[in-house]
Structures are given as C-alpha cells and as structure tokens.
Amino acid sequence: MFAARCGCPDFIGIAAGRGPPAAGRPRRIEMIKMLSKISLSLQQKVMLGLLALYWSGIFALTHITIPPLMLRQMQASDKALHFLVYFILIILLWFSISPAEKVNFRKKKIWIILPLLLFYAAIDEWLQGFEASRTRDIMDFVANVEGLSAGLVIICLFSFWPAALAATAAAIFVFTGAVRIQFTGQLAFVRPLFLLTSFGFFTFAWNRFLSSFAPAESKLQKIKMLILAIAVPAGLIAAVKLLTRFTGRVFGTKDIILSAAAILAVVVAIYLVSLLKSFSPQRKN
Length: 285
Known about the structure:
The chain is mostly helical. It folds into 3 domains: 2-32, no CATH class; 42-157, no CATH class; 182-285, no CATH class. It has helices at 2-6, 11-15, 25-37, 42-61, 68-74, 78-97, 109-127, 138-157, 160-177, 190-211, 219-247, 253-284. Helix 6 (78-97) crosses helix 8 (138-157). It is globular and about 60 Å long.
C-alpha cells in the first residue's frame, strides 16, 4: 500500500515472491542470462589459477636481487628465458579467457590481450632498471616480443591441448638445454620435481589430445593407442638428451629415469581410471 502511494518499488512484495513490476521482469531475466553466460568451467578456473600463480611468480622473480653466485651457476641464455616466459604467458592468458577457441583476429579479444602484454613487457623491463642487480636491456624486450609472437602463432594454429603440449615441451627444452644451475642442499629437490611434473603433465596433455580422436574399440586399436601414449613422451626424452649434447648441458641417467617414471606413472593412472569407468556401468546393472 505504502509503496503504491509513494511510487516506490514494492521490495517487500518482490521478496515475498509476488515478483517485480512487469517492466522490471525482462531486465531481471536478461541479467540472469548474462550471468549464466559468464559462468566459468572447471578448466577455465584451473587456467585462471595457474595464470595468477605464473604471472605473480615471474613478476617477483624479475624484481628480486639474484645473488652473483647463482647467476654464474645458471650459465643460461638470458634471452632464452625471456622468450620462454612470454611464450608461456600469452598461451596461459589466452586459454584462461577463451579455453575452447583459437585466436580469431576478427574478434576484439586478441586486440586487447596483445597491447596489454606488450605494455606489460615494456614496463617490466623499464622497472628492472631500478633493481641493483639488473639493468634495462632493449634486447630483453625484443626477446619478450619474440616469445609473444611465437606463442601467438601457437594459439592461432592449435586448440588447448596441442598448445599445452607446445608450451610444456618448450619449458623442458629451455630448462634442460639452456639452464644449468646446481640445486644443492635444501633446493636439491627442485630439478627432480621439475622433471617429474613437466614430463608428467606433457604425458597427460598428450593422452588428452589422443582421446579427442575416435575411441579405440578393438584390442589392436587399444594397443596402438597405448604405444602412442608412451612413444611421443619417450621421444621427448630422446630429443632432450640430443639437445643437451649440443648445448653441453647434463641430462644424465638419473634424469632419464625420473622422466620415464613420470611418463609411466601418468599412463598407468590414465589406464586404471579408464578401466574403472568401463566397469562402472556393469556394476550399476
């Protein structure tokens, strides 16, 4: 009554379920539709979490003072690291926003992302001039742009899982073939952990990519798929070993065993999960 007299919306009536005025209902329906469209998938939530960790991590690492001893131990190509950081960054950012799409230059998304990353790369390099152990270097910025360009090619040509394979393989090649740092003492776990996680994720991404094709029905097809599931990650180990011979880095027997163990563990886990899924309908029946 009071709301009708004063011309105010009947908020009590709306809360009681009588609904808003007729003119307000289309707006509410339209808002609900908009909210439903921006709901995030699990994959997108994971990508956004990884992006937040990765971006904050590289910002912290590029603005802390690195001890001279660690710099000498790394014996790494600084430009290769700049290239890799931005190569991965654009792939993570793109698939955090559009997890199921390749780049379409007719849409606005990529024209927002590219200037944003170029601006960040320039500002990040400029800010490093204020750090005692760092200097501004235009060639570092060039390496950043090259990494962005290479990542842009990947997200133009490939969908999520092939792009994830490319990014993981690039990280493995750089950290095994370009970086040689002796992690000792409390940091001795870093290299084994990197090998286990990187080769494990590469194997997982490769198997997800394989599963996008027609499922294997016959035993022969399943055997072929199993061979493929192991052969490509194993080929990556062989490629890394060959690369380290040319670059003078070390990828020894222990590294090979750890990488192979990660591959086999992921393949066995995927096989066991698929086996359990195949038995679940029979149990229900």
